[in-house]
Batch of 2 targets.
Target 1
Amino acid sequence: MAPTTSAMTFLFTDIEGSTRLWETEQARMADALARHDALCRREVEAHGGRVVKMIGDGLHAVFADPAAAVASTLGLQRGMAAIGEACGIPFKMRCGLHAGVSQIRDGDYFGGTVNRAARIAGAAHGGQILVSQSVIDLGRDRFAPGIEFVHLGRVRLRDLSTPEDLWQLVSDELQRTFPALRSLDSTPNNLPQQLTSFIGREKEIAEMKSLLGKTRLLTLTGSGGCGKTRLSLQVAAELIDAYADGVWLVELAGLADPDLVPQALATVLGLKEERGVSLMETIVVHLKSRRLLLLLDNAEHLLTACAQLVDTVLRQCRHVALLASSREGLGTAGELTYRVPSLSMPDPRRDAEPDALLQFESVRLFVERARAHHPQFAVNSQNAAALASICSRLDGIPLALELAAARVRALSVDEVNQRLDQRFRLLTGGSRTALPRQQTLRSLIDWSYDLLRDEERALLSRLAVFAGGWTLAAAERVCSDEIMEEGAVLDFLTSLVDKSLVAAEERDGAMRYRLLETVRQYARDRLLERGDGSAWRDRHLAFYLSFGEEAETMLSGPQQQLWLRRVETEYDDLRAALAWSSAPAGDAQRGLQLAGAIWRYWYMRGLFGEGRGWLGALLANVPGGSSRARAKALNAAGTLAWQQADYAAAAAAYTEALAIWRELGDRHGESGTLSNMGNVAHGLGDYPGARARLEESLVIRRELGDRKGVADALNNLAVLAYDKVDYATARAQFEECLAIRREMGDRWNIAVVLTNLGAIADAEGDFAACRKLYEESLSIFRDLGDRWGMPGTLNNLGEMAYALGDYDEASARFAESLAIRREIGDRRGVAGQLNNLGRAKCAKGDFAGARDLHEESVRILCELGERKVFVEALEGLANVAAGSGDPVQAARFWGAAEQLRESLACPLPTKDLVGYEGRVAATRAQLGDDAAFARAWTQGRAMTLEEAQDFALPAREAQRAA
């Protein structure tokens, strides 16, 4: 969001008493409001302004010229009088004008100037126009004749910030006299003036105002620094008209003695003790006949005393309302609690564009406070990502953000972000006039921690081992011991929730708990101080190993979708458990077991690189040996490597795993690894070797009665038969596989087989059956949130569209698939997808674009050593050369591809033969010299694999020559 470069004048209006008018004059009000909207647009645009937006029955407009803004507002008041007379209702508009520099995003304006303009309008009465000093200064000597201004004095607006010099616009056509302005000065109060602006919280303010219409005691709860005090003050300021005898703030933070609570209230009300009468009785007598709002701020350390005072006032003073702020509720009858959330935060993974960031309250707060220390501070492309990260890592806590923003005096935003791992050292230096606990982030949480019982402190520190969130069952298993039994954990956990140190939310019918990151780091430090952190991390690892082993079985069964969500929910903690097991003091053997248990999640979610990283580190930490856990981990590492077309790494992992399975006599493990080794051979183009491994695996699995294993082997053999254009065998094997998958309720693998059957229907030209199979498969993958299966099926839908000549749909499907493959790091899949996109571009006549895509594919394939997809790249480049008018080069590409297909025993699919033969014939005719075409074809066939790669990438050939 960029600031405007010069001062603009902002106009806000609304209709006085509109709620009542809607209730009593609905038909007339609808007619009048339609006329009002038309009048607003007409008058604003006639004076060179722009309507930013209509807000309910009000207007927000902006003008470059303050004199034009004033003239437009005067025209609005004239028009409103005419509308009211025509519709027969009292239709009066209040207007506020203020000028200054603002920030703009997507055509809307934000910042202190805009907020102040709205507050000025809120101070006006119907028919009144209020103008700030800045408008007077900027428009001096340019206002139209007949316009005058009367100074109303320096007024405290309801934003609690600095007062504003206000002027009333007077004219012969306007009412001149009005009641006192609707400001903080018009009603008794002791609300303190704030030196900084109030940011956001529109939703919370609206909800709290509504709740105070339903209850006489509303308690704001929330973590330290979340902004309870500032929010309660703002709500009180906005509701001041509802309380004829004012709003009164009672600050309790400085009190240590509970007996002084009534005295604090009496002091605010100006009451003194009377002989023979208790102070509480004096307070009640004073309040009984008054209509006012009391604010009890920071009550958490005086809960009992505050509850007793509140109970007495509520029972005996029927027109008094109370708004309290506390880390936990007061626990008295009639109380409603409202948990104050963090400020809205960006997601650093998505919201890192400068123009998008300032829609978030946390970012706006950081920016405004940063400018107080560094006036030139601005959000730009260099600091946007770090700023998004800061706001997220600080959980949107206002005090933490303010302390971080103060550091821009000496550090860049990126440097602040880098130091947040040591946030309690970094986030110090708050206002010297603030309460001591508000001057550093650590002292803020110390205040809450010091109020806890010993058991609560112990539980809070133990909960720091959870990285994401946890269930009650997890807390009971991980955090209990001989001193804190499992049954006691719930009571202490509930107490921590009540004290706003633990957040709780219902998810899928169960409660889930979490620590804000700042609290978690604090609790982690306390855990380290206690000296038993390793023991609790070991318990955490043991719990998640048990969870992972249960997930291993469930991810292949009928509850697959449910368990994918469960693993996703627990994934931060699974990562934390793996990280601890990989640390020097951790249990690497258990970590290896955990990684070997959850590898299927990495596979199904396309997290190949991350999974390989964990498995590789843990295998290195537990070298050698012939354990079942090691063989499982090797098998998992090999499968993830195979998926990334890293065939050398896959083969090495499978070879070691096979040796262990055979040493252990584990036929089940042996058959699975043999099947995987067959897939590697297939990827390398070794079809005889692939078939031998896969058939050996199938024999063992049938002997063992391993239905899932049989289905795996059948699927892999069917893919092999498909590549050999043996569709009858492939279909039979896929259908047997599908029957087993359906019997087991394995939806993910059902989707895989449906895709494969769709490919056969596509190859045979049965497009109706093909589309049905693909779309059923895609629906399952999307439902599961699977990032591995989706791109394959999207690609197949693109292939079908291509075959039908719909190149636009084909390109769209290929592009969507490519984006997912890039995201999950599937480099082999990326290369194949680039080829398919290249074919679609070539069909549309974009030969240069197609060449770029095929060459990018070749570069990837050269690095991977992949040959089958390389053949497709050569054929794509042949099509490009033919379309570009170079038949000789096309013949060489086709010759090289033909020879490579023969060496791989991988013929062109039947469905592609007609198109292929037609292109070859047309290109030969284009050259007009059959002998020359044949010579070029023979030259291509004579190329080695390396020479074909050089031919496909001229730059690579030149580099080799150099």
Note: The chain has five domains: 2-183, 202-339, 354-442, 457-703, 826-962.
Target 2
Amino acid sequence: MFPGLPTASLTVSNLFSSPFHFSVPHYQRPYSWTTAEAGQLLDDVLAAAGIGGDPAAMKPDYFLGTIILIDEGGGNFPKGREREPRLFEIVDGQQRLVTLAILAAVLRDLGTERWRWGGRHRLDQLVAADTAATRLHGMRYRIELRAQERDFLENYVQTRGSCASTPTETQSLAEERLLAVREHFRSELSVLDESERRRLSDYVCELCHVVVVLARDIDRAHHLFTVLNERGRVLQRNDILKAELLKSTPPEHLDAALQQWDHASRLLGESFEGFFSHLFSIYGRGESKIIAGLRRAVAQTGGPEVFLNDVLTPLAKAYHRVRQAADVEISIDPEARRYLVYLGRLAEGDWAPAAMLALRQYADDPARATMLLKEIDRLAHVLRLLCYGTNKRKRRFADVIDLIKSGAPIRPSEPPFKLSREEIRNVGYHLRSPYKRDQQVCKLLLLRLNDELTRSTTLLDPGDYSVEHVLPQRPGATSEWRRWFTDAEEREICTESLGNLVVVTQKQNDRARNKEFARKREIYRGTDDTPVLPITRDAVEAGVWRVAEIRAREEMLLRLVRDIWGIEVNSLLSARSEQREHNAVA
């Protein structure tokens, strides 16, 4: 495959074991994968392992691609039982290797079995450097990033138990991405039971493999990298589908077909490739691979021309509206725009196909399309509040897609939009401490409540804002907070209450931290450039911030939750406080 170069296919457990140790050279870019790329890798591996779906669908192995390494010590693979540690520079494959290390660390820290033996110990061995490598090279872990991000990865991923630690702040974009990928993996994997996580660990270690190519010097490695990533790059899904559609199109219609394809490509730009994943969700059910599913969809819809006219073109327009709903130049019903703006703040992998189909299916009935978007918005946000994993959310929205395609009457009070009693009860449970459950979802909820307070839709960028605890999480020992909240249990309940959370800029959050309430109010007031948001105004206008204020604000915000999504949630803070008062009297 690569004449003259040492090449081998290795499982992940072989690759992350003696004598392999990896460093990221200074000329490499920082870690750049987002939750989209890392999440796709996790979803693919879960599907290949038959987890979250039909166990019988488990694939015999999963190929993670080719990795290029430099071995200045000779450029040959270790032989036999060689255990002398060797340090390899990563030329191509940094993102995958670091992401696999994060996955191993998260699985390790989510485990509950004893350390000395078993799966957790095995996963830790994938992350930690061999003793000899520590002695000879000073390495503590099997992968070392560039100096700027090395400490961050060690402190919040690689060290045992560190995946549960949260940094007070991140210094670089790469650190933010490392943290975001770690948190995404924790969220997705925490909903699996212990046996499923163990199956996933075994599958990753023994049945996921890479092709490793060794080069002796940077010049040869760079040449190989160029060949693999330019002339020899793997075709994208849209390249393959385009070729198949056009080869089956009659010559007299070829120019029109090309124009349709190119128009959709220009309209969607960089999101064109991702668009086909959503097409697969709508038309590829029953297939395990996207291209196979789309091929079947082309045949079932009547061939290439019908597929271009009736599927690709209208759904590309719908997807453009979904992604660009905040653009006032795009003509769309104001209420529908509102729901799409809120949906757009969520990752789009689960809800987007249903929203696209609603806009396309009811293009001539805007009122019905808007009603559907309202229900899609409600379901998407409630599933996030419930902390459901990606696969579970996708299965729920697959039922929504089937309902829309069937043309049957759609009633919010019936499945798949209807929430079970247990789900409503769990929403209330999660709203007891939303920030601890999921920081990003909590921020989006507060921004949504912010709009509800003003009965308007603000086009805020969630990335510009941060969630602040008015009553601090760690108040000083001599602060007035300790005098206002003398009972430690009640103070903890109040701290994590929805009624204690406001939204401010990151700069304001950094300044406020553990300050006394009077000082926090001054910081929250902001400036002309950063006006106070309605969701924060309660704290600015309050004279004190004690249990009564937090309780009243929580009840007010929960009423807004009821108004938005029709979910009746009792104030858990009030219930627990009243129970405590009753117990004290008794």
Note: Residues 477 and 483 are 10 Å apart (CA to CA).
